[in-house]
Amino acid sequence: MRVVSQDFNDGDNLSLHLAWDEVPAGTKSFVVTCYDPDAPTDSGWWHWMVANIPAEVTVLSQGAGSSVAELPEGAIQTRTDFGQSGYGGAAPPQGE
Fold this sequence. Notes:
Elements: E1 18-19, E2 29-36, E3 45-54, E4 59-60, E5 76-77
Antiparallel strand pairs: 1-4, 2-3, 3-5
């Protein structure tokens, strides 16, 4: 899934509200990642990674990546290219 939003251009560290449905039977958990393949690096940029989201969860509220307290119980955030866990907002180079 590709997500495009003007909210990505302001540099805030506020993850978007995400919701999904039609969960396949037998799903155990979800992983959500936010990766920018167009970042001015040789390998893109990982802004956010959340694993072990329980299968019954179908919403991550806006800002859920800011604090472990905002995530569903059992979900974990991994280290990103910012060098820490949690959501790191986009900050495109000037003029882009």
